[in-house]
Amino acid sequence: MMGIVLADWYQVFGRQDCRDEVVLQFSAHQCCLQDARTGLYRHMYETTSDGHMAGVFWGRGNGWMAASAVDVLEAIGVEAEEHQPIIISFRRQMETVRKLQEPDGMFHTILDDKTTYRKMSATAALGYAALKGVRMGILDEEFLVMGRKATDAALDHIQADGVVDNASSGTSGFIAYDDYNQIPISPRLYGQALTILLMTEYLCHLETIAR
What we know:
Blueprint: H1 2-13, H2 16-33, H3 59-76, H4 84-100, E1 107-108, E2 118-119, H5 120-135, H6 143-156, H7 189-204, H8 206-210
Antiparallel strand pairs: 1-2
Helix pairs in contact: 1-2, 1-3, 3-4, 3-5, 5-6, 5-7, 6-7
């Protein structure tokens, strides 16, 4: 999460050390958490065992990584050679994520486990990343479909008072696999914020998606 702040500092103040730290942080996350086969991110890395605790591809965690990638790349730029590993990693992740989206636009709390519940926070973050990735020229336009479906799902989960429902509560990585499916569902500020990001990005594509 700090990477976005550092990227903004680089953009505003030209701090090269901030940009270098962002690139280093993404490299560390990719090395420790990104699955070589699927491109998805595990929830946690445990240094003493060189393992991943329950080893799940947590939906909101993958959403954080994808949304952070596009926001960071917007700030530091996509042209530099040293930024290409972030772009390549993001594309690999999103290619797999797109295949795991349900017909109603939602994603599961464990992305590749259809027996786990579907949640709005993961859906909003991944939909936002898809739409923004297209706008930035990082993803192909076919990802607009994924973003539109996520937006439709979000509209179905906004209550009359504007509250976004179906966002899971805080999720510790120090839990067993089956416990991920027991995390309570309730409105959360991050679910609200991620949905606002998704809706804002959707408006940038409104004419394109309508066609």
